[in-house]
């Protein structure tokens, strides 16, 4: 796997936060799914988010990506961009890529065509498939396919891939669009132990050029990421720090790890 596709402005000296949430609250029918949540992700960081079911992890991702509007609080990208003012499509275009749990690759197209389609973005499938890529674009597609470990499978139809390989393809389809911040929702769900470890290695590789926030329940995966961990509980941060530290926290053991 090789490093690929540099994100612009990644090492901007002035930027304090790639993602900054402050005092964010969101209620559904009076129930606070997100409760005064604050989170600060530095440029270039790899951050793992853990927490029990219903802690608010998905709602937090929905708020960052514009799918859900918070009732109050600040949500900022690259210090100055107020994400609450934008819709989902705008936020994707600003450079925030989200990978959902369920892969959405086109099963009847090849690995290569899926990445090509993702590069074409919002243009039509037909346009993407019959439009000739520049040599730079072709290199980009090939680099991404190599990065996600599917070089040998580039010509295979996506429907023939294993569950884990489909997840990697999906990650590649996001990377080719050049996001600065990548949000990844439970990538290891349904994977074999080997695929889980490969996925942790892939995200660490991707983190060389991108800020990455990953939500996951699999503690072996979290351990392999070897990153700062945020524990969410009842819509706010219960603990934050190295896994060794948060996993020794009695409250974290009580509400999550000890279950
Ligand atoms: N659209 C909605 N309407 C009503 N309640 C909601 C809605 N979305 C989320 N909730 C509630 O908000 C709380 C937080 O849910 P959320 O899905 O964000 O948790 P989670 O940490 O992602 O959980 P899991 O680990 O199970 O995916 C839950 O109690 C959930 O039922």
From TrEMBL:
GO molecular-function term, one example from the UniProt record: ATP binding
Among its keywords, does the record have NADP?
no
Q: Which UniProt keywords apply?
A: ATP-binding, Nucleotide-binding, Transport
Q: Where is the ABC transporter domain?
A: 19-259
| CDD domains in the cross-refs | ABC_Mj1267_LivG_branched
Q: Which domain of life is it from?
A: Bacteria
Pfam families in alphabetical order: ABC_tran, BCA_ABC_TP_C
Q: Which InterPro entries match?
A: ABC_AA/LPS_Transport, ABC_transporter-like_ATP-bd, ABC_transptr_urea_ATP-bd_UrtD, BCA_ABC_TP_C
Matches recorded under NCBIfam families: urea_trans_UrtD
Protein name in UniProt: Urea ABC transporter ATP-binding protein UrtD
The gene that this protein is the product of is urtD
């Amino acid at each position: 796997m090789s490093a690929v596709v540099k994100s612009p402005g990644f090492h901007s000296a002035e930027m304090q936060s790639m993602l900054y949430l402050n005092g964010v609250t969101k209620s559904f029918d009076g129930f606070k799914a997100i409760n005064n949540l604050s989170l600060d992700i530095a440029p270039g960081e790899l951050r793992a988010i853990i927490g029990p079911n219903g802690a608010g992890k998905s709602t937090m991702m929905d708020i960052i990506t514009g799918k859900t509007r918070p009732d109050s609080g600040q949500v900022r990208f690259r210090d100055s961009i107020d994400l609450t003012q934008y819709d989902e499509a705008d936020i994707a275009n600003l450079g925030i890529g989200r990978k959902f749990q369920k892969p959405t690759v086109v099963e009847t197209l090849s690995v290569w065509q899926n990445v090509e389609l993702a590069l074409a973005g919002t243009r039509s499938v037909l346009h993407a498939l019959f439009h000739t890529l520049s040599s730079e674009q072709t290199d980009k597609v090939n680099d991404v396919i190599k990065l996600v470990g599917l070089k040998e499978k580039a010509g295979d139809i996506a429907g023939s891939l294993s569950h884990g390989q489909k997840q990697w393809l999906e990650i590649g389809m996001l990377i080719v669009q050049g996001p600065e911040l990548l949000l990844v929702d439970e990538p290891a769900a349904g994977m074999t132990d080997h695929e889980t470890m490969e996925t942790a290695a892939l995200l660490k590789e991707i983190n060389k050029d991108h800020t990455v926030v990953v939500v996951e329940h699999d503690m072996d995966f979290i351990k392999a990421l070897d990153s700062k961990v945020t524990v969410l509980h009842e819509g706010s941060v219960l603990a934050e720090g190295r896994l060794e530290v948060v996993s020794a926290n009695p409250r974290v053991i009580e509400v999550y790890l000890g279950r």
